[in-house]
Amino acid sequence: MSKTPETPEDVAAAPADAEVTDSGLASKILKPGSGTGKPGPRDTVEVHYSGWTTDGKLFDSSEARGEKISFPLDGVISGWTEGLQHMVVGEKRRFWIPADLAYGEKPSRPGAPCGDLTFDVELFSIKGAPESPKIPEDLIATESAEKSPSGLASQVLEEGEGEGRPGPTDIVVAHFTGWLENGNLLESTVMNGKPAQFKLDQVSIKGWVEGLQLMRKGEKRRFWIPEALGFGENPPQGAPKGNLIFDFELLEFNEMPKSPESIPAPDDVSAAPADAEPTGSGLASKVLSSGTGNDHPAPTDEVLVHYTGWTTDGKMFDSSVARGEPISFPLNGVIKGWTEGVQLMVVGEKRRFWIPGNLAYGETPSRPGAPSGTLVFDVELIKIGD
After folding, report:
1. Among the CATH numbers 3.40.50.300, 3.40.50.970, 3.10.50.40, 3.10.560.10, which is that of 19-127?
2. Which among 318, 355, 378, 384 is annotated as catalytic?
3. Is 353 a catalytic residue?
4. 124 has catalytic annotation
5. 7-29: per-residue pLDDT in tens?
6. Distance of CA 134 to the CA centre of its chain
């Protein structure tokens, strides 16, 4: 049953008996828990919470809504990431979180409270994060590996099904884990729990483009990618140098619709018009059609959207509309411009966003296939929540 929580008497500042960590986070147990295990920094937790500013204003509360919330600890404010790792299941704790561990004194996120914040949090369950993938024993290509004239080497780890293979312009859905030649983990969709989806001819790693065309649906394959087929001798900022090792599982592949021109670039694709609404972060947007809902998504909510994206020269680089399938994702798992912008929307609304490079993939993206610089998106919010 939902209820509006009462403002704590000590909301303005932590009392003398509160525990204080080196970071400045203060907390006090309100109700002991019954569990013994504590969440790790990447675990997913289920909680009830209420948050106040230090003047006693309630700004958010799952208790008032009557619905618990789940989220990974590495996807929230630093004060929550640190604080919840001290808790056990069944425990209720009050946190006094300094601004630098919350949203800051001047938040860039629309609607976020500024300054020091106070939270009451009750922990209901912990779901462990996936274990880090095991480092391959063969970081150097084996003698039995298949080798191509380009220098790419690969070995089938698990057979796939069917005879079809992706074409050079197909959209693929795959799980992958990548390592540097010294065994350091580079990136893993397996750990993140969500596969990657990308168009093969937009991938900057040539070894991916060549290698995935060798695979069948359901196949698992290991690739040893030489530097020349990776990010090159002079990689973009943030991208690794040297040879790379990737394990891939090809889940699905589909041909890109042949008529992307059916979604023409907007007339104002090159720059935001004068009537666009700018935010403090540099994001600009304009409502194209009004929605029917009243609620806005929260920063960790799952949303279902249709979208089309263009570079400022009018080139369409991605579109759920062209594929005919909307996409769902948690708002804290996408580019910053989407995280901020979609929170401005209500269900049924369609909005155009002009997203500067620093809120998108950057001027020299490290993510394979990602477009650079300022991007323009038309987004339609279909649903909030699972």
Report:
1. 3.10.50.40
2. 318
3. no
4. no
5. 999 999 999 999 999 999 999 99
6. 23
